[in-house]
Amino acid sequence: MTATIRRPDPNQARQRRPRRARVRFSFMESLGFIESPTTVSRTWAPPYPVPSQGTPLAPVKRGAHERTVADLDPIDTTSELLSRNVRWGVVATSTVVLLGLGVLAGWLWQRPSSLAEAAVSELTTSAADLAPKLESLQEATATLGASQMDTSAINLATLSVDAAARELFNASAALPASQSGPRTQAADIASRALDASRILSDATAYRAAAVQILAAPAFETNPELIALDEAVRQIGSWRLNFDQIRSALPEGTMSSISNQLHVISGNLESIQNRYIDGLREDDQRAAESALLELAVQLEVAETLLTRSLGETQESVAGLIEESLTGIDRLLG
Questions:
Q1: What is the pTM of this model?
Q2: Whole-angstrom Cα distance, residue 332 to residue 327?
Q3: Of 165-174, 197-206, 235-244, which range is least confident?
């Protein structure tokens, strides 16, 4: 294998490559990269002699473009200049908005305490309003067992206590959590007052209905003075009225009397048959015996009613006394 070496022809003119134009990069020069070494030396040479250690520095003279903040001259800002540059409408609006936000923040800050004070004031007023109504209810309760019961006074007293107790209960519910003690105490007072009013109202309605059927009927026992069909009609009508009133009595109130009346209702058919048979057979004693048995049973029911009314009076009076004592503690 033979290697061939190409030699340049001396007779052929050498072709010069075109010289590239020099490009100056100003940003490179600003960082200190300068093509000419002489320029570097001139650029980085200090413009003033470096003093030796211990020699005080002379003030440096700076160009117009090298002035510092301390070299700036003060500018006189007159009211005329300010009036041209300040937007007084924006300033006034901003001030009003800031004042409004401050007032709103203060109101929101004080609102919980204001609501709590208003709730306590409402609670105090409701409790003070309930006390005299409870005293009126206590006076009306005394007539429950009397021979002449004042139904209108009792109804008026119970309605007044109901309304006042419900207002107190609502006022206690409006108290904040920090007032848990007075809230519980007021709720207990209202509950006792409502219980007293309800018990008295039920007892009043029960007695007003029961007394109509507890009186022994005065039927004729002489067969010669009454026709048989008239006697059947009279005792049958009384029996129907008895059962209607008994079934309409409030449930859960004076259960002992209700049980006794239920027993009497079960015996009425037998009593009626013996009474009618006595009249049919001209046996006045048999008719009187049947009616006497009915009168005894009704008297037992009346005795139970009197006893139950006394117990109801004591129960209502106790609830009223507890409520009044609680009001004194709450207001005290």
A1: 0.63
A2: 8
A3: 165-174
